[in-house]
Design a protein that fits this description.
- The chain has 3 helices and 2 strands, in the order E-E-H-H-H.
- The protein is mainly alpha-helical and about 90 residues long.
- The chain has a two-stranded antiparallel ribbon.
- The longest helix is centred in the C-terminal third of the chain and has 25 residues.
- The protein starts with a strand and ends with a helix.
- InterPro entries: DUF2530.
- Keywords: Membrane, Transmembrane, Transmembrane helix.
- This is DUF2530 domain-containing protein.
- It comes from Cutibacterium avidum.
């Protein structure tokens, strides 16, 4: 699909109506193109937090923060699924 002769979703730095815009997109390469590295780091962080919460579960329960363990376990599980998805996508 094109709009004003440009491919939709692609910005090449030109303005269709030749007006100056206040905001422009910088030509900066992404740090992590496929998201696998970020997914691995985030999943490891949630896994470590899960272990810490499990070790301190008695103290968390007394203070009313038992949900933190489930939040960390959910973050770990979603991180595994998300990382696997990104890794599979990056291979194709």
């Amino acid at each position: 699909m094109t709009c004003h002769g440009h491919v939709a979703g692609h910005y090449d730095g030109t303005v269709a109506n030749q007006r100056e815009h206040l905001l422009t997109q910088a030509n900066v390469a992404p740090v992590d193109e496929n998201g696998v590295t970020v997914g691995i780091v985030g999943t490891i962080a949630f896994a470590v937090a899960s272990i810490v919460c499990w070790i301190m579960l008695d103290r968390l329960t007394v203070n009313g923060y038992r949900d933190w363990l489930w939040i960390c376990l959910t973050g770990t599980a979603l991180g595994i699924v998300g990382t696997a998805y990104c890794w599979r996508r990056s291979r194709h």
